[in-house]
Structure formats: C-alpha cells, structure tokens
Amino acid sequence: MKNSVINGDETGINVGGQREQCHLISTKKYTYYFHHEGRGFKAMNKMGVLPKYRGIIVHDFWKSYFKYKCEHALCNVHIQRELKQIYEKHKQEWAKEMSDLLYEIKEHADCVPGKRNRKGNVSALRKACKRKELRENGVDSA
After folding, report:
1. Which contacts qualify for 52-55: CB closer than 8 Å, 24 or more apart?
2. What does the pLDDT read at residue 134?
3. What does the pLDDT average to over 35-41?
4. Residue 56: what pLDDT?
5. For residue 8, which of 59, 50, 42 has the smallest C-alpha distance?
6. pTM for the whole thing?
C-alpha cells in the first residue's frame, strides 16, 4: 500500500476442474496472490488492496481496474500485443509504426544514466530523440 507504483494482473487457474482466477498485486520486492472464483470488480474488492490504494497501478486494459480511484498506467507488453494484433489482423501500418516507436523509446530510456530520476530520464530521452531527428535530417549535432 505504501509503494507509489504497483502492478495488477489476473490469470485463469484450474481448481478441481473449474476455471477460477488467481489475482495478483506486485511490487519490485513482493507479490501478493489472491484466489477467487471470479475475475472482475467483485473479486478485486474482496482482495482488499485496490479499494484503499491511491498510487499508480500498472495493468492490462481490464475495465474493472478503472473503477478504482488510483492513477492508471497501461502495461507496455499489453499495448504491444494490441498493436501487433491490429497490424496483423487489419493491416494498419500506424500500429506497426507505433510499436516500433515504443521499442525505440524503451531502448533510449534503458540507456539513460541515473534511470531512477524520472525528470532526468525525460530530459535525456528528449535530447536523444532530438539528436536522432537531427541525424535523420542530415544535421551533425556534435
């Protein structure tokens, strides 16, 4: 409850031949597992974490998460899956371009010194993107 960012997820499990749900909340250090018959809001309330949590929760697009009064961040892995499906199923080129851009941003963000300083990350990422833009337009930024 004290962490500023947590992750939420759920997955189907087999319990005595019945499909039920394993819900989880995780931080960098801990994972809390919670078994329930259902997947939605009722089960999440019974778990007891999200009704009280006021930080940022990273999750998939499951609508039940959006009923809570915390801030929401969508999981990049889930976003990438959606973009891949849009591109492959509907041949939407923008989805491929967005996916490539997200991977490129991640590459730059992973290379930024002092990654824990979010403000510094954004500034360094902007500078890296500006240098790339200048290079692509034939301007030497050195």
Report:
1. 52/1, 53/1, 53/6, 55/3, 55/4, 55/5, 55/6
2. 63
3. 93
4. 96
5. 59
6. 0.70
In single-letter form, the type of residue at position 79 comes to I
Task: State the Cα–Cα distance between residues 25 and 31, nearest whole angstrom.
Answer: 6
DSSP labels, 54-104: -SEEEE-S-GGGGGSSSEEEE-HHHHHHHHHHHHHHH--HHHHHHHHHHHH
Give the model confidence (pLDDT) of 75-97 as tens digits: 999 999 999 999 999 999 999 99
Contacts for 96 with CB less than 8 Å, ≥ 6 apart? 83, 87
Query: In whole angstroms, what is the distance from residue 134 CA to residue 139 CA?
Result: 5
- Its sign, for the CA torsion 76, 39, 55, 26, is negative
Asked if 23 and 47 touch (Cβ cutoff 8 Å), the reply is yes
106 pLDDT above the threshold of 60: yes
> Which residues, 6 or more positions from 51, have their beta carbon under 8 angstroms from its beta carbon?
45, 68
Beta-strand relationship, 56-59 and 71-74:
parallel
Tokens describing residue 87: 């591109």
